[in-house]
Amino acid sequence: MDLILKRPLAIIHQLQRQHSFLTIENVKEILDETVLFLNTTNNRANGLHELATICHELASVHMLIPFDNIEIIKHEFFIILGRTFEMLLSKARLISMTKADEQYFYDLSYFIVNLCLHKNIAASNFFIANNEKWNPNNEEKYDPVSYQKIFFTKSFFQKFIKIITHDLIINDYQPFHVKYKVTHSLLRLCVELNEIDHSLLIDPIIQCLNSNFYLNTFKAIDLRQAIFNPKQLFFICECPEFIIQRCLKQQDQLSNLLCLPMLEYSRDILRQHLPVSLEGEDLENIVCIRGAKIQAISLHIKLLNHFALTPATRRYFIIGKNKKIIDQMVIVLSQPSLIKSVTHNHQLFHADVGMVSYAITLLYNLIFEKKIFFRLKENETILAACSQLQKANDQTIKFGSYTLSAILKQKDIDEINNPSKTAQTYLFYIENMIDEPSRIYHGVKLNGVLTNLEIIVQNDQIKEEIANDDQGIQLIAKCAYGKDFDDDIRHPALRIILSVSFAGDVAIEKIKNIDPLLDYVHDEFISNNAKQRWTANAIQWKIDEEKKFIKNQEENKEKDQEIIEYIKPSVKFDESKALYQYIRGDHRFDLSDFQIEDTHVMISYCLDDKEICDQIFDKLKTVKHYQLWMNKQYLHSANPEVVASAMEKADIVIMCFSNKYRESSVCRLEGEYAHKRKRPFIPSYARNQANMMQVLQAGKRKSVVKILYMPTVSAKRVMAQKNTKFSTTPSKKTNTVSKSTTTKPSPKPTNIQIQSTTNNILLEQSHFQVSEKFIIFWLESNLNNLNEKLISQIRSIVNTIKFFTDIDQCVKTLIEIKDVKIFLIVSNSLAQQIVPVAQQFIQVDSIYIFSNHKSINEQWSKAYIKIKGNFNQIEALCNVLKERVHQLNNDFIPISIVPESSIDNLNSVDPLFMYFQLFKENILTIEYDYEMEQQQLVDYCRPRYQETEKDTKIFDQFKVEYRQKSPIWCHLSAIKSEDEILFSMSTIFRIGEIKQIENWLWEVNLILTGDKDPLLTRLTDHMRLSLGDGNGWRRLGQLMIKMGEFKKAEEIYNTLLKRISCDDKTECAFLHNQLGYVSKQQGDLPEALSHYTHSLEISQSSMSSNDPRLSSTYSNIGGILKKQGELDRALKYYEHALKIDLAMPEPNPLEIAIDYNNIGSVFDDQKKYPEALKNYKEALEIKRDYLPPHHPSLATTYSNIGLVYRNMDDSSTALLYYQQALEIQNKSLLSNHPSLIVTHGNMAGALESLKQYNEAIEHAQRAVDIAKHAFGPNHAEWQKREKYLEELQRKR
After folding, report:
1. How far apart are CA 301 and CA 273, in angstroms?
2. Edge-first strand listing for the sheet containing 626-629
3. Interior CA angle at 469 toward 468 and 472, to 5°?
4. Hey, which residues does 727 pair with through a beta bridge?
5. Residues paired with residue 989 on neighbouring β-strands, in sequence order
6. H/E element holding 626?
7. For residue 665, what is the DSSP state?
8. pTM exceeds 0.85
9. Average pLDDT per block of 10 residues along the chain, 1292 residues long
């Protein structure tokens, strides 16, 4: 056999010595001889030896051989090579390999990998590609031949996957075993190749990462190891890299699948390897013994960062012990030895640089999660570390450090360190991402970069740097107008362009010269997104229309001045002869008849401060001589020209400055225009919900305007005169927990800097849920003044307490709490600042001033009605608070008075009363597993109470004694000191004698009715019947459906489904039917159809297809098919339901009415309006005969008939039917029932057709509000309603 190899090997060795290229003929000759031998030899071992030897030798000189020639690629040699390698893949998995076989296995794989990496595709034929006759469409006519198509066959992937899933994650081999060598190089090749089906390998790689081998491979890394061994390369390097590089389409799914197990592994990995890695490189010792360890940690952090790119998985990093990973990343970034190392090295492959860059990128991606943002914001170490890391040479580290510094200090946007370099790092990243299909560069997403740039571009120096950069505006513009980009890239990019336009003429000229951007701006004029539409209008205003508008204004002024000059009297005024020269100084003019001209006032504000500015507007409306302009409807609907026109007319512009005002391009546009036009303005600082009620007093002739502030507002006291410059003086220092700032007068209004007098202490989570009806806000400058005993005494009265040290944050949280009564306890030192603000909040019930150190000055507090006292003893405060809670608990009891004559008319009865009555009945009929239910109640309550020793005793006592005593005994035992009578929920009384005691006081004697009271019975009988038969749980589920509480209904039915036996087919069918209904109501049509179909299949297994009990299921399936657009199928199901109902021995008229209604709806969708109207009216006649006049089902039919008339272009008739539907629903449904969404939407549509836009907007707004309450702001229904509302507002 050696003789056979002698000739080809001699040629190859000669090639190696001379470094010369082989001719194609020589290569073919070698390959032909090898194939001839392989096809004729009977000794398979010899054949494999020759093949492997040839591959080994060819691989050593592959760059000198024309392997990319199409004749070479198509040679039979490579077909044989591929099949032989597949055989070795199977052999490696199934049987033990000899040393020779292992070497052959490795040699073949090495040669294949090199061919695919370096010589994969045949060199193109220039003549064919550019010949019009052979290639008329300038396209590749034939699929190019490639090595990857020869080797990476379906059979190859099957064998490659099996060696991973059936061997490598089951059997443990030595680190340098040939299987690891081959599989890691093949997997690395799969990462590099583009034209293979990567999805085939996803499951095997997930299994590798989820296996113990991933974690164990980390544990085996030796401290003296400089590089990875093959086993580590496969598990630690190539498997994660495959997930990162080749699973972008499945990124969200895989991140959710892998993130939690990887975070769990992280604890062991970081605990074992991080301490050594934190030592940093010894710059004086070139020998590095930490190479493999630090590289392994870097790759693991890189994988975690990949998961952090998915918004849904970022929250996993803040759960339980995972929080420690965030702290460990901060430790990495703040380690002095690492900082020193990365500032001297810049190569990404350098161990320290790699680890720091991945760590800082991980934190960068995690700050998009709100809780993590606040966690890092409170960590001063990270800001200090970022300041040092900005000196690093690596672009990723610089980008991360600049961004974290800027984002974590959003309120100090003007204090960004080195804004020029910050801007350049952002442009560097955008440039490297913009052409990447994944839009990711070094673990950072383009949409995130633009989101952050939108914030920091408020820094004027960053604007100027981007404007002056040769490619800056062009790069961002490409992100905006690029059609391949998603909206989360295009929209912020366009807003950044607008912000950069404020840098001046240089920026504007560059923007004007980008034609694709201007085309995109024009397209966005009609965008459905109001904010995007306004941004486009604002850019157009900046680059073109503003100058035209100002020029036009100046021309008009010149014309006006010419008229004034023309009519001006020729006699000059001689002041020495004026009347007032002869009047004594103590003379008082009588100005009772003097007429003051109206003063035009414009209020410029940010949407976040709208509530405050609405109060200013409403207050100013009460002053006689003010003409006001304020965009009260929607901030982004204001056309820049409209705003400019209002500003031209304004004598005074009130600018309500705040941090959000500064960040808003809308507000900046207004402020810039006011500055250009030298409009007189009053600057004021709007802090959240601080009371800026300003008393503007009209002066005489010159309209002197004075603005006054309440004590809590940190702003400048301003005396402004029409057409004069404003002088400013700093406010006095206020008694708050932080520093007061003094601001010097500024000659230019636009440069006035007004800062907050308090340092904000942000809560970790500003939006919190309150499960009780009372909550205490405790504002104290130093929380150390409060001890546990004192807090425990208060908590025994009201469990939920929120503590604040900062007035701003307290006020901000007050705004968020809507439906809860708040008791405010405030320290004496902060009382005079917070009370004037808190007094105005409806949700603040009462205020208690407390100090346990000194006496309190009560004089000033008498002016505020909500202050219940000044206390220096906690016992006295507790007594007053307890009494107030008791009083409010009584006030919470709802009472409705219904005349006896109106008992059949539900107009005057709160629908909630009926539902509560039925709820009570159902609860009392439910059978309970007391031990389980009792434990569930305790488990529910414990986390909602910050347990004191007293609470713990109550819970323990409840568990032991509850079954021993009656519930009423438990209640009375809890309030022994009170003399009370207990009534059940929804108790009804007759009103007896009414006596007048005093002019303002009456005594009403109430007579308690019995269970058999005829009025109560008549009221509830019908609603009770509508809940159907069955046990209490069944009826409770139906009641939740009636109330529109579909989530609760779903929970009840799922619970019942788990509890019943599979043999109870009737109950199973019923529950699936109900689950189908609630799924449909929640918009999940596939789930609904699945439940309905399952219900039908169960029922048909024990009854005929025409059984009366199947009618509702046929009808329900028809409803889903109708919604899915399968109208013909839906009609068949509906008609089958009607056939069943009509054939019943005792037909149910209401079921028949529903059938007619459903059939009418299909004809309506098919645009067969006469047939639809006929069926709807059949349904209406039946319902009128058999239902109460205000039953919700009648409303449904009225709405349907209205829709048909609307489709027949008879909007007036349609509106009449819609109004009848709404009237019924208002009397029979809760105010936020989802059914009202459709009715209000229908009325809005009819009114729009009649061009009654104001009324249409009112109904559209109501539909939006109910949809948001019912489904949330991310639901498609709310988004549809919001979009329609915006369209209506544009038409008005």
Report:
1. 12
2. 626-629, 599-604, 652-657, 681-685
3. 115
4. 719
5. 1008
6. strand 626-629
7. H
8. no
9. 58 58 78 87 84 83 71 90 93 90 93 85 50 49 75 94 94 94 95 91 95 92 86 95 90 91 91 77 47 88 93 90 92 90 73 90 91 88 91 89 84 74 90 89 89 87 91 93 91 92 90 91 79 85 82 73 48 39 35 47 81 78 70 58 78 80 78 81 58 32 28 27 29 31 32 27 32 82 79 84 88 80 90 86 88 65 84 88 82 58 45 62 66 74 62 70 62 55 62 70 69 52 59 76 83 84 83 89 89 88 79 89 91 92 86 91 92 92 85 88 91 90 86 88 92 90 89 84 90 78
The SS3 call for residue 583 is coil
Question: Residue 908: what are its φ and ψ, rounded to 5°?
Answer: -95, 5
Note the pLDDT of residue 970. Answer: 58
Report yes or no: 34 and 50 within 8 Å, Cβ to Cβ: yes
Inter-residue contact 379 to 329 (CB < 8 Å): no
Which one, of 1275, 1184, 1191, lies nearest residue 1237 by Cα?
A: 1275
Beta strand extents in 630-747 (DSSP E only): 652-657, 681-685, 705-706, 717-720, 727-729
Q: Kindly give, in sequence order, each residue whose CB lies less than 8 Å from that of residue 1215, ignoring residues fewer than 6 positions away.
A: 1202, 1243, 1246, 1247, 1250
Query: CA dist 1191 to 268, 1027, 1147, 1158, 1187, Å?
Result: 64, 14, 21, 18, 6
Q: Are 717 and 729 in contact (CB under 8 A)?
A: yes
Q: How far apart are CA 84 and CA 90, in angstroms?
A: 10
d(CA 665, CA 606): 10
Entry field: residues in the chain: 1292
Q: Checking DSSP bridges between strand 440-441 and strand 444-445, what pairing results, if any?
A: antiparallel
Please report the pLDDT score of residue 58 as a whole number: 79
Torsions phi, psi for 736 (to 5 deg):
-120, 180
For residue 1023, the model assigns a pLDDT of: 56
Helix axis angle for 202-210 and 212-219, nearest 10°, is: 50
The separation between the first and the last C-alpha atoms of the chain, rounded to the nearest angstrom, is: 93
pLDDT score at 301: 94
Cβ–Cβ < 8 Å for 466, 503: yes
According to the model, what pLDDT value does residue 504 have? 86
Start-end of H helices in 639-699: 640-649, 659-663, 665-676
pLDDT at 897: 58
Which residues have a Cβ under 8 Å from the Cβ of 138 and sit 6 or more positions away? none
How many Cβ atoms are within 10 Å of 1051's Cβ, its own excluded? 14
How far apart (Å, rounded) are the C-alpha atoms in residues 395 and 391?
A: 10
Exposed (0-12), middle (13-18) or buried (19+): which is 228, by Cβ within 10 Å? buried
Q: How far apart are CA 764 and CA 318, in angstroms?
A: 12
What are the phi and psi torsion angles at 708 (to 5°)? -115, 150
Long-range contacts of 674-678, Cβ-Cβ distance < 8 Å, separation of 24 or more = 674/604, 674/647, 674/749, 674/750, 675/748, 675/749, 675/750, 676/550, 677/550, 677/553, 677/647, 677/648
CB half-sphere exposure, 1061, CA atoms < 13 A? 2
pLDDT of residue 608: 75
Dist CA 271 CA 387 (whole Å): 27
- The DSSP line for 772-839 is SSEEEEEE-S-GGG--HHHHHHHHTT-S-EEEES-HHHHHHHHHH--SSEEEEEEEHHHHHHHHHHHT
CA pair distance 1088, 864, nearest whole angstrom: 56
Token pair 């004749």: residue: 71
pLDDT at site 514: 92
DSSP 1229: S
- Position 90 scores a pLDDT of 93
